[in-house]
Structure formats: C-alpha cells, structure tokens
Amino acid sequence: MFVGRERELNKLEELYRSGKFECAVIYGRRRVGKTALIREFIRDRKAVFFTATETSGQGNLENFSRSIHEFFYQGGLDAPLYRNFEEALKMVYDHAAPERLVLVIDEYPYLAASYRAISSILQKMIDHQFKETKLMLILCGSSMSFMENQVMGYKSPLYGRRTAQFKIEPLGFFESKSFFTRFKIEDLALVYGITWGVPQYLELVDEKKSAGENIRAMFLDPKSYLFEEPSNLLKQEVREPALYNAIIRTIAMGSAKLTEIADKAGIETALSVSYLRNLCSLGIVKKEEPVTGDSRRKTIYRIGDSMYRFWYRFVPPLMDLIMNDAAREAWKWIEPELPAFMGHVFEDISKEWLWKENASGRLPFVFSSAGRWWGHDNVRKEEAEIDILGFSPDREEAIFGECKWTNSLVDATVLETLSARANLFRYRNKYLYLFAKRGFTAGCKKAAGRLNARLITFAEMNSGL
Question: pLDDT, tens digit, for every residue of 433-459?
C-alpha cells in the first residue's frame, strides 16, 4: 500500500510533463520510502530502473546492462553486455531522444564508490547529449552526506546539473494515520512514536494487536525485524559504531549539553563534536538552539528520530531480560515510562498540527518560524522552557504552546505558567495554546477565558484531519 507523498508525486509529475531533460536528486535515510515513491511515480511509464549494489564497478556495469536489456529487450538472453558505462548510457540516449524516458539509478552512492568516474561521465553526457533529449534522470541515495556533498555540492562534477531535489523525510503523524483504520487515536500516537512515520516500520504494525502488544512483538523479540535495526543501520553508516552507540544512548537517557554527553559517554569533548556532527547529518540526532536564536551557548542535542530514541532508551538496558525470554517482564519496566517518552512525540505532533492550521489560514496570524525555546526567567529566577514558540516574520505576533501527554486533566497552573513565560517576551500580540492528551479541569477552562487561551485536546486535533 502506497500512502502519502502527494507533494513529491505532484512535483515529479510536473517535471515529467515538461517534456525536456530533467535531473531529479532524491535522497533520505534508509527505509524512508524513496524507492517506493519512485516506483509509484514510474508505474505505467517507460522507465529503466537500476539499483546499484556494494560490488565492483564491473559488477554494477553488468547489472546496469541487464536493467537496460530488461526494458528494451524484455530480458532477451541474446542481449549483449555493454563494454563500459558510456556505451550503456549511449543506449539510453538513443531511446530518449524521440520520446519521454525515465532512467532511475537507485543507491547511486554504491555506484559512485565502485566506479569513481561515473559522476564525471554523467556530467559529460548531460552537458553534451542528454540536454537535447526527453530523458528524465533520477539519482537516488540513502547516504545523505554523500548526496548532499558529492552529488549536489559545488565540488561535485554534477553540481548545477540537477533540476530538482527531494529530501524524503519520514511521514508526519497525520499522514501515518492513513496506514490504519482500527486503532484508537492514542494508540495511533504511540505507534507513530515507535516508528517515527517510517513507512517500512509502519507496515510491520499489526492492527489486530494493541499498541503495547506491537511494541513487544517489534522490539522485545530477538527474532523481530526491529530488535537490532538501529544498531545494524548505524554499522552501515559509521566506522566506530560502539562510540556512536554510546553517544546516542547517553542522549536518549536525557543528556543534552555537549559537555554532559561527552562526559557520560566517556569520549573527549573534541571527538564528541565530530561524532555528533555525523549523527546530525544522518538525521539520528538534531542540534537545537532556542527558536529565537538569541544564544548559541544554549545549544543542546536531541534524538531526532523517536524510533531510535525508543530503542536506545529501552532495549539495551533490558537486553538480558529480552534474550532470556522475559519480554513480559521487560514490558513491565517500559510501560510506566511511556508517558514520559511520548512527551516529545506529542510536542512534534502538536507542532505539525499548528503548521497545518497555519497553512490553512485558521490561526490568528501566519507564523514563519516555530520551535522550542528555553532560557532564564528573570522574574521567577529559574530556568524556563516553552514547548512551541511560533512568531510572525516581523516578530510582532507570537503563539506560545504547551503540550501535556498525561491521563490526568490539565489544570490551571500549567496555563498560568505558560502565560507567565509568554510575558518574558515583547511581542505586540500573544496567543496561548494548550494541548492535552485527555482534557482540562474546570479551573483551567475558566483561566483560558480570562487569558484568551485556546485549549485543544488530542481528539480535537484529529477531528478535522
């Protein structure tokens, strides 16, 4: 089942309909659905689809030749292998001159690693031949640093040749919901939290089971697909996985500042900076500053992928229980911690909802930036945080949001605190938004009227989307 990606498909369709040479670069983390997107796009279209592998240049040339033959010759046994990539690409050129043809090179970094001249060859073909054809070339890869630097970077032979680029992110919560029809909305949120909207992981979820049963089946069974998934993916991307594992685990357990991360992971601070930079480029960790950008000294690090955050928070500490067939006992440790784990997930869902409302013009004003804020409250003489702060381009208006994932009704003290923190800022117009998993006390509703605040339950967030 193919779900979502409407904007990406529409843009690819626009490129296809141009009728001229196009070169689209598609990249994103593994399992995010890049190949599925491409296959959906080329369905019922004339396309040569080649997937490079970790083999020699000759091996990839042979596989490329076969991909061409499968399309042009229907896999005929008498079709010869090409002597080199130039000859193979010339075959594509000949057929793309008179009619629209799509050429997909999936896992392009593998091809470039096995045959270093391929980018220069493609540059030459684009400049002198392909531009005169109706070819639509798609280069796809999972190594984000390679695609950004070696394909789109200014030092790459291919720099300036692309006509579009697509960074494929995991699906948002409201798109991920389309995978399911039976779950209660709170279970949907938990399922989203443990999969982070990665299509391949969403497809593993069994709606016949509860969210908790799915967690046990997907993460607490040594035979399950996700049991070693994060560490296996990490091994494919970095040379020293043990050190990276230590850093990710430290952040997942609550450390956020560089010095604290380095100290608890047992790694020198200077080395930690390099490792964190690589983890950020992989999309596993994200480096954050207050959305207002008022101080770089407040930089923190968070796990950017909640599936990784879940796995590193819960699986390694309970590994002995899991390996000794005591998944139910492991679950007893995990279940009480889920509300705390879901706190950050709910923040992300609430922010996603606000962006949708923003795009639809249903907010008091249109904000241009939104994120978290933290700093010092000079009035209360304490450190303060705001889950969501969104402001207009002229910084005259702002939304202040607080998110609470708790079974208890949210009381007025939460709203009063949010109001006090909003008063730390000098925006002309301020709007308070309080998001809750279940609901609000009568006192909170009364305070909302006085403070002109909007109270939104998770059910309400889902009612119109």
Answer: 999 999 999 999 999 999 999 999 999
